[in-house]
Amino acid sequence: MIDKAAHVSGGQGSSVERRPSAKIVNSSENGVVRVSTMQRQMNKLDEDMKLMKDQLDAVMEERDRAFDELRDSKLVAHEAKMRLSKALSPRSPRSPRRGAEDKDAFSYGLDEELRIAKAAETRAMNLYAESKKRINKLEDEIERGKQSESKMFESIVSQTKQLEVTKMELEESKLEIAFLHEQLEMVRNSSPTKDYEHGDLDVGAFRSLRSELEQTKAILVRAQEGEKAALSKVSDLMDEIEMLKIELHAAVEAEEKSQKAMEHLALALKEVATETNLEKEKVSSTVMELEQAHEEAEKLRAMLKKNEEFYAKLLHEANQKYLMHQNTVERLRQEAEESILAWNGKEMGFVDVIKEGCEEREILQQEKARLYESLKAAENETRVAKDDNHKLRDILKQALHEVKMSTEAAAIAREENSELKDTLADKDEAIRFLIQENARLQINGAEDHEKTKELKRLRTSLAAFTESKFDREESGMDSEVDTSKFLSPDSVFEENCKEETGNEITDKLKEALKGSVYSSTPEPRSPKTRHFTWKNSFASTEETKANRATDFKNPDSNVEKHSPKTTALFQKFGDIMMKSLYKKEPTATYH
């Protein structure tokens, strides 16, 4: 009895569990199929909307093009009217030939404009026919889109109903599964007591119940997963439905706009047709006016031939008079050439006399300048000797104080040596410039050439002398400061000898520059007798500045025979030499 009851209960439980599992599987499969169909329909609707938008854009472009062509045709007609009014308006009297040519050109232009207007009219009519065809096609497509939209809406409604049905079935399956769980719990609780009491319970029935329980659990898990996926798909579908509604609203608005645009296009095409008829009437009137203009042109041509014959006679007479005038002009030209040749001969004689006077004046100016420079050199030498004596006395008095400040004096001397080297570089550049100027001015004579050679030789000797002097100053600075605190008479005598050699070189340079273009440079300053002497004589620099000003302002100088450009270059070179040779030294004296 117990075995039978167990078999019966096991059979009933299995049948109860199999029924909800089959329902769940069928409902999940139906939901997947519905979702796939809805997605296909959504894709079709998107494609249809894109096609409608493209077609609307094409129609709008064609409408704009038709408006542009209409505007162009209006402009052409207006220009034709203006030209016709200009041609028919009374003008200023002109030659008959010119009037005939203008009328011919005007008639040709009117013919071209008529041809262009006819072509524009045909294009406008073709566009009008094409736009009508397009409008009809778009209306048909809009109707088909409306039908497809209505079908889509009905399908969406039916699918929403089916989704509600699937939800109800899922709820029922959940209830059945809960009932089965309760029965399984009851069987589990009752089965051990019965086995313990009776001991002869069927093991096979228990195993079958356990296997069916596991199957129902797996089916339940799959049903829950399918339910979740269906719910997510349903939410996505609802969002897509909302988007479709928005796009449908936009499509309806675009359709209304396109209908309004088509109505405007139709009105514009009607206006074009009426204007073309008016233009045809105007063209016929212009053709009549053109025929009248042709008749007037024939009359003007006949008058033109008569005028040409008259003007040909006048031209022949004018040519004869021209030949007579030309003969008289040739005779007068020959007489003028003979008188010009005679005057040129006299003028050359006057020029030769003037050149001789100028040469004598230049020679006198050169001699005067040389005498003036020699006198200046003598005065400057005496002044330099006096300045040197005063400097030697100051040096002997300040020797003790300068020994104390020897370190600072050495640093300042090094800086001054670097500045002197810079001035030597400036001298070299100036001398290179003078070499180029001397090469260009070789036509001035052999004397200038020899002076430039002597200047080069003195430059090399002066550079060698200054470099040796700088080397001696740098090497002997520390030794002099450390070995002797006071100067002996022998060392003073040796330094005076060095100064005399330097003065001899500068005197040679001055003698070489005497009487040349470079004689405007001032007297050289007295060289330094000691490496650590910083006191400068202001009187010599002021006198040299005054002498340089008088030399540059002297109108009898040799610079007058050069061009203003060369004189300016030489003055610039003189300034550079002045700055390099007479550069100011620090005037502070150390006590």
TrEMBL record:
Residues 35-69, 121-190, 280-335, 361-444 form a coiled coil. Keywords: Coiled coil. It comes from the Eukaryota. Residues 542-563 have a biased composition (Basic and acidic residues). Residues 1-23, 82-104, 538-564 are annotated as: Disordered. This is WEB family protein. The lineage of its organism: Eukaryota, Viridiplantae, Streptophyta, Embryophyta, Tracheophyta.
